Structure formats: C-alpha cells, structure tokens
Amino acid sequence: MTLLECKNLTKKYGKHTALNDISLQIDGGHIIGLLGPNGSGKTTLIKLITGLLCPTAGSVYVKEEPIGPASKNLISYLPDHSYLNGNLKVREIIDFFADFYEDFDSLRAYDMMAKLQINPCQKLKTLSKGAQEKVQLILVMSRHASLYILDEPLAGVDPAARDYILDTILSNYDEDSSILISTHLISDIENILDGVIFIKDGLLHTHALVDELREQDRKSIDTIFREVFKC
Amino acid sequence: MLKKLLKYEWKDTRKLLLPIHFAIVLITIIGCFILNTSIFDSEMGFLLAAPLLVLYILAIITFSCVTLVYLYIRFYKNLYTAEGYLMHTLPVTHTQLFHSKLIMGYFWFFLNSLLTTISTTALGASLGFHEAFKEMSGESSGSFIDDFFLSMGQTPDTFSFADVFGFTLPMFVFSLFIMILVCSFSSVLMGYVSVLLGQRMERNKLAATVGFYFGIYMVIQILTSLAVVIPELLLMNKYLDEPMNFSTQYIMADSFQTLFPAMIISYLLMDIIFYIICRILVKRQVNLD
Questions:
Q1: Taking the CA of residue B77 as centre, how many other CA atoms within 13 Å lie in the half-sphere pointing to its CB?
Q2: Environment class of A167 (CB within 10 Å of its CB; exposed 0-12, middle 13-18, buried 19+)
Q3: Does any CB of chain B come closer than 8 Å to the CB of residue A15?
Q4: Which residues, at least 6 apart from A56, have a Cβ–Cβ distance to it below 8 Å?
Q5: What is the greatest pairwise CA distance in chain A?
Q6: Subunit contact A51:B286, Cβ cutoff 8 A
Q7: pLDDT tens for residues B208-218?
Q8: CA distance A135 to A25
Q9: The model's pTM
Q10: What is the pLDDT of residue A228?
Q11: What's chain B's average pLDDT?
Q12: Which among B82, B89, B288 has the least Cβ separation from residue A82?
C-alpha cells in the first residue's frame, strides 16, 4: 500500500508560489531524504503533509486517508524548531504524548532519556538547547508511527549529537514505516538514505532511489546535489 | 479526545487562574471581616478605609482583566505560534481543539464574573447602607433592605424588594446569574473571534488580531448601548405621559425590568453570532507560519 501520496500539490503565498504541482508517492520501509537548499519548499511540503498548511491546489493522502485526525495519527512529526511548552516537565510531556498517541511507547521514551541522563522531573526550559532538541527527537521516535517526518533534525547540532540523532532514528523506526528527512546536510545522512527527493524552486526535480542515482551518475548524492543546486 | 484536551487545558490554565480566584475569595472574606469590625469607626480608621477600598477595586479589576487576557493569549499562543505545531498535529479535529479552549475559557471567565459579583455584593452589603444610614440619621433598622428604604426616605414596610428592583429577590438573583452566564460567553468568544480573524490575514496577524478586537469591541459597545438606551427612553416617555406615577422606586423597578431582559437578549444574540463565526473560521484549515 502506498504510504504517502501527494497529488498536484501547489501552495501559493499571495503571488509567490512556494510549491508548484508536486506529485509523488512514498511506500513503506524507506528512508527518504527530502533535499534542497534553503527556501526551496521542503518545509512547505512537510507542513502540507502534516496538515499545518492548507494547499492552494491538490491533495495529500496518508495510507489513503485525507489530511485529518486519521492521517495525523499515522504521522510522527519533528518540526525544525522548538514546539513544546518549556514550562512543562519532561515527564508531563511524555504523559501528554502517551495520552494522545495510542502508538506512543512511554518505556522507550524513558529508556532513551535515562541513557542521555535527562531527568524527567526537570522542566524542559531548564535543559540545554541540545538536550531540548534530543527530548523532541526522543518523543517523535518513541511512537510506532507509519510515517516519520523529520524537518532539519541535524541543523545546528554538533557532530557528536548528529551521530546520536542518526543512531536514534535508525534504531527506533519500524521496518514497515518510512522516514522522510528534510535536510541540506547531505553528506551526514547519505549513507542511511535509500531514496531522495530533490526540490528546486518549489518544483519536484528528482525522485529516485539512491542506488539507481549513484549507478546512473557514478557520483555520490552529495556531489549530485551540489551540481543540481549550483549557484 | 475532547475529554483529553480538556484535561490538559485544565492542567495548564489552573496554574495561574486557580490562585487568582482563591485571591478573590480571600480578599472578599478579609474585606467582609474588616467591615464587620469597628476598625473604621475612629477617624484614623476612616482615613485608612479609602485607600483600602481603592486597592480592592483595583485588585478585582486586575484579576478580571488578567483572566480574560490570559485566556486570549493562551488561545493564540497554544494554537497559532510554535505550540500550534504540536496541537494541530494531534489526532483531533480543529473543532475539538476550539471547543476545548472555549469550554475551559468560558468556565474560568464565568467563575471570575460570578466571584466578582458575589465579592462586590458581599462587601457592598457589609459596608453599605447600615453605615450610610447611621451617618445620616444616627439609627439603623438592622437589615440591608430596610436601611436601603429608610435612606431613601421611605418606611421599610411601604415597599418590598420587588417594588424597588422590579423583581422578587430570587428572580433578581436568577436574572443576574443568567446575565453573567451569557455575558461571560460573549466576552471569551470576542477575543477568540479576533484571533481567528487575525489568522486570516497574510501578514501582521497579531496586530490584525488586536485591531479586530478593538473594532468589534467598539461596535458591540454601540449596539449594546442602543439596546439599553432605547427601552429606557420608551420608559421615560411613559413617565412623561403619566407624571402621577413618577417616583424613584417606580423608575428603578421599571428600569431593572427593561434593562435585564434587554441586556440578556443582546448578549445572547452576540453569543450566537460569535459562535457561528468561530465555527466557520475554525472549519477552514490552518496556515501556520
């Protein structure tokens, strides 16, 4: 079954077209890189899939469900910025997720927190910026969701933290699920990707399997990206 | 899911609003206690009474304003800023999100209005006519309503509560309760409508929200004033036609009889209109920046 289907998706802000006629399909069991430079439309596409934006034209389906409570139940989403109430204790946020998402695994969340020596009784805002980002990632990866959407999970973190994030992503997603990772730090994630989507100026430039692309061009994805998006 | 949303809404809002409402109860109890002692009988005590009264009034107004503004800010912040990324990706409908905010917001502001009314009435009754009548005549009949009649130059037996206030005491309290019910709802909804209208703008959404709020507030003030003034003018006409019936008591009684229904109907209409607008705006999908 197709996990994610975007049909002729267009988003305009006034006269500016952020995304233009994007159509794509993602099946289960893949890690897809959503790649493009800043302002190419990656976050807009993600926000349309998660229901945070309303499309100007076109439609999105997750496991044949249109955007709504049913589709949101299937998606575990990590935004590119802090989105949790900093006044809440980590434990309270875990309870919140466990209450709303049937597929949330509290034990997994507490286990990961313990490994990082994050005290669940601490208020989120009292943690360091890096620790807050890790808490957000842990919450998202503690769900047994069908589709994980991670918007710039590696941006602004040190190399050691990047390793931790990638390890957390790889060791916590179910095999039937898919992960859509938006980033422009391709070299860091190239090895874990099995598919890529290139977005250029709001248009779908490439949607292909990594191995096919490498064989076809005899270049790394990072090199192909640099060529496609050369300024 | 609405129950779960309400649970978390309660947990979050109670942190600020529960202490505020405890404070209203506390200052009311302390105020009544002080007014029932002879502390203000001396000249120094009387001088102390004025600033204390001003402080009390300021506190009550501040508590109401803080409650309402906090509810508006929470609605905006929780749904349309960074926190909205969490709330709008929960497996719930937009209508459920809106209703959770509305129900909890209404609960708090209704409680606030009710406690404020009870507080001012309790302090007014403690302070009020006993002291006023003592000052004027040097004697007191010992009850609030009797003193009220006496201070107006009437003997207590001449007029009943209904003659002065237009309703029997239970009916007056009931009407006041209904008015607080409908008025609190529209107060909360007015802020929510402004936020939702502000979100329809392409840019400067927060500034647009504030603009919409003051715009709606002004329109509402004009309309409610008309709804109150027109029946009162008709009433005055009646007294001009029948000067024989002209007396303070009858004017007050008739005023209350026309004022309460006019206010209740006006606010009820506002509630319905605001709610319909909110439902229409909420049904449209969000566009978070």
A1: 12
A2: exposed
A3: no
A4: A10, A11, A12
A5: 52
A6: yes
A7: 999 999 999 99
A8: 30
A9: 0.83
A10: 79
A11: 82
A12: B82
